């Protein structure tokens, strides 16, 4: 006999095979449990009436009280439309029906007081409410209490499964919950954190009587969700630590010391020193290092990476540094070679365009240990790339790498090499804790001295001439310019079009022979890209028109102006990354955000944040508030946190409580074997089995 949650959804009253198929396809609702976990996205307080003058286009649903004074039928047959003027003491709206016109018309009464419930829209500059829900006040007492609104889809809507329809289905299940709905937390935790039972929480989240019901239900469900997330992270971390011991790098040897004393052209910042110490401690611990290094663009992460790789070499281990693009890998290679010149250490480069003949030499050098440091793109992950004794892998700008790719590095030695992940996309604390529960985090929170703040401004299309004049003046001063266009996967064609149009416009406004313009985009062959990039790096061209391929890591100190076109289409962290391409030299740098005049509230906030702040951490906090963590982490990782109800932007407090509870549990019952923790054991086992072992590296 099935228990209630796993009963297939098609057995539910009102759901045939057709609707069942649609529910499962559109919403991943396969059984009663899934439907019960389809939570309202908000509630409407039905005891509250909005005044018509206060209607707002962002209202999702409102309740109005008033009368009808005009009824009008227009159109014929399928195009019949009914409208009625509805008013209160502050204004009027049109009620509109496209279906059931005759029937509704006959049931409407002028001068009756109605309560109207629906979603207000603006049609030809007038407020209207299509297909409102109506109650006559004299017949029924007004509805009170809180009514849930459920997410639905267009297809479900067309089969009657709109919010109302879903509410009805859920109301068929709720009375059956009774005793058969399983609790999934222990008595102890339920008591200690004053949670209501799971059964009550499910009932109350769908059918609350008051605000308190909603709060209790939401708290209980969020707590549970975050508790299991934390528990999962703790368990995975423990498993990893048991499975893998780490290489020990005992020596601080000649390479490191010579570099530090004789080669380093500047003082390390205190933050860099602190981080190197932290890493060194890991190298001595005998445990496998899994460390995330956060630091704003230009904070000197690459240098830290270099010095840790020297530590590996000093101890007889090889090291590799992996970058997300060929351009970036090449730049790393060049700057490393320059830093390390005439030190007895061999550095090689491996990318997708490394020739076969070269590859052969490279492979040999790696296998016999003559190459100490390998710089490369993901070409480095290929199975044919083998090392004599790799001890450390540095992954630059990790958000470009998928987790599965990273785990390939693990297989390249008898024990997994230490992993240092570097990112310029800072992650706020609660999020770091949640995402990287099994990663140690280091932060470089200081820029090298003498950097000038980049001046950022926001300009509209109508200012373009002025912007171009400014750009010309900067070029006269000998500076170089980036002009970046959006590239978003879904509309690659359109973006390409925009880029080419932009390129033409730029070429026209900045004519030869006075100005020379380069272009780099994703559809070019990598040799072409390289060629253009090199021209710009060498100063042969003054303007680089590009898509976001230049976003990460590229270093041209003489480039001091970044113009971002259609800036509203970029996320905050991306804007910040792009801006980080300038401000690398001695000159005052500028970032100009070009946007359309019509901006959503959110886009405006993003532009403001960029103009007001140069601080990556502050920007990340705003980004998190605006977009949510899934986006922040990049698409590849957004699936990891499949949160149904919690919102990491707002639930930091509950994250802390849940983490504390999970930690206590693991301390008192490390194997989760006590009878009192039976339910927890069952639940967490299911969770661990249902997911791939993504926790291995990140
Ligand atoms: P990140 O990778 O963190 O964006 P980089 O490592 O590319 O930053 O460093 C940016 C620039 O700053 C490089 O030219 C680097 O040589 C320089 N740099 C790094 N550390 C220092 C320091 N302590 N003092 C002065 N310049 C530094
Ligand atoms: Mg970098």
Q: Given the helix and strand composition, which structural class is it? A: alpha/beta
CATH topology of one domain: Rossmann fold
Our Rg estimate from Cα atoms comes to: 30 Å
Q: Tell me the name of the CATH class of one domain.
A: Alpha Beta
Low-confidence spans: pLDDT under 50, at least 5 residues? 630-640, 694-698
Helix content: 25-40%
- Per DSSP E runs of 2 or more residues, the count of β-strands stands at 22
CATH-assigned homologous superfamily of one domain: P-loop containing nucleotide triphosphate hydrolases
Largest sheet: 7 strands, mixed
Q: What proportion strand?
A: 15-25%
Strand order of the largest sheet: 6-7-4-3-2-5-8
- How many angstroms separate the termini? 40 Å
Mean pLDDT: 86
Bound molecules: adenosine-5'-diphosphate, magnesium ion
Q: At CATH's second level, what is the architecture of one domain?
A: 3-Layer(aba) Sandwich
In one word, what is the shape? Answer: globular
Count of DSSP helices? 25
């Amino acid at each position: 006999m099935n228990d209630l949650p796993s009963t297939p959804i098609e057995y539910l009253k009102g759901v045939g095979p057709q609707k069942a198929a649609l529910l499962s396809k559109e919403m991943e609702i396969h059984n009663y449990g899934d439907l019960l976990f389809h939570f309202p996205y908000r509630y409407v307080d039905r005891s509250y009436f909005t005044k018509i003058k206060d209607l707002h286009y962002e209202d999702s649903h409102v309740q109005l009280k008033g009368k009808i004074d005009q009824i009008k039928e227009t159109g014929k047959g399928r195009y019949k439309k009914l409208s009625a003027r509805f008013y209160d003491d502050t204004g009027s709206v049109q009620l509109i029906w496209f279906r059931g016109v005759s029937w509704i018309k006959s049931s409407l009464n002028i001068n009756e007081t109605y309560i109207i419930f629906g979603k207000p829209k603006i049609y030809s500059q007038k407020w209207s409410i299509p297909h409102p829900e109506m109650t006559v006040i004299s017949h029924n007492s007004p509805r009170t209490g809180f009514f849930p609104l459920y997410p639905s889809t267009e297809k479900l809507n067309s089969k009657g499964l709109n919010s109302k329809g879903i509410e009805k289905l859920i109301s068929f299940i709720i009375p059956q919950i009774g005793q058969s709905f399983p609790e999934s937390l222990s008595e102890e935790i339920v008591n200690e954190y004053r949670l209501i039972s799971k059964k009550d929480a499910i009932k109350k989240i769908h059918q609350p009587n008051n605000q308190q019901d909603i709060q209790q239900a939401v708290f209980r469900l969020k707590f549970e969700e975050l508790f299991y997330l934390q528990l999962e992270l703790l368990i995975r971390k423990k498993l990893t630590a048991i499975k893998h011991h780490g290489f020990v790098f005992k020596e601080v040897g000649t390479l490191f010391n010579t570099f530090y004393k004789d080669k380093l052209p500047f003082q390390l910042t205190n933050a860099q020193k602190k981080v190197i110490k932290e890493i060194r401690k890991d190298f001595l611990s005998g445990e496998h290092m899994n460390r995330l290094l956060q630091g704003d663009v230009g904070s000197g992460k690459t240098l830290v990476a270099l010095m840790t790789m020297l530590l590996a070499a000093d101890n007889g281990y090889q090291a590799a540094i992996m970058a997300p693009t060929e351009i970036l890998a090449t730049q790393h290679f060049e700057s490393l070679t320059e830093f390390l010149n005439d030190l007895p250490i061999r550095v090689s480069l491996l990318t997708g365009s490394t020739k076969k003949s070269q590859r052969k030499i490279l492979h040999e050098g790696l296998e016999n240990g003559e190459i100490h440091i390998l710089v490369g793109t993901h070409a480095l992950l290929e199975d044919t790339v083998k090392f004599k004794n790799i001890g450390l892998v540095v992954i630059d700008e990790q958000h470009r790498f998928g987790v599965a790719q990273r785990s390939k590095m693990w297989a390249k030695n008898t024990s997994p090499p230490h992993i240092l992940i570097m990112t310029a996309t800072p992650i706020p604390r609660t999020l770091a804790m949640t995402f990287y529960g099994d990663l140690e985090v280091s932060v470089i929170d200081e820029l090298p001295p003498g950097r000038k703040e980049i001046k950022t401004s926001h300009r509209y299309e109508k200012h373009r001439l002025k912007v171009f004049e400014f750009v010309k003046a900067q070029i006269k001063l000998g500076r170089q310019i980036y002009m970046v266009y959006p590239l978003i996967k879904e509309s690659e064609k359109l973006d390409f079009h925009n880029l080419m149009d932009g390129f033409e416009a730029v070429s026209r406004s900045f004519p030869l022979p006075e100005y020379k313009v380069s272009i780099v985009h994703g559809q070019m062959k990598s040799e072409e890209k390289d060629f253009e990039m090199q021209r710009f790096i060498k100063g042969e061209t003054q303007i680089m028109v590009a898509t976001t391929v230049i976003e990460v890591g590229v270093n041209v100190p003489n480039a001091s102006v970044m113009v971002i076109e259609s800036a509203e289409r970029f996320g905050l962290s991306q804007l910040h990354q792009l801006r980080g391409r300038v401000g690398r030299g001695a000159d005052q740098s500028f970032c100009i955000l070009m946007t359309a005049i019509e901006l959503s509230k959110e886009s405006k906030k993003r532009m403001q944040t960029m103009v007001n702040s140069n601080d990556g951490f502050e920007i990340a906090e705003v980004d998190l508030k605006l977009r949510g963590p899934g986006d922040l982490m990049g698409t590849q990782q957004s699936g990891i946190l499949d949160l149904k109800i919690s919102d990491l932007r707002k639930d930091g407090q509950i994250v802390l409580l849940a983490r504390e509870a999970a930690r206590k549990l693991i301390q008192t019952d490390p194997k989760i074997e006590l009878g009192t923790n039976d339910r927890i054991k069952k639940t967490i086992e299911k969770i661990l089995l249902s997911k791939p072992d993504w926790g291995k590296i990140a």
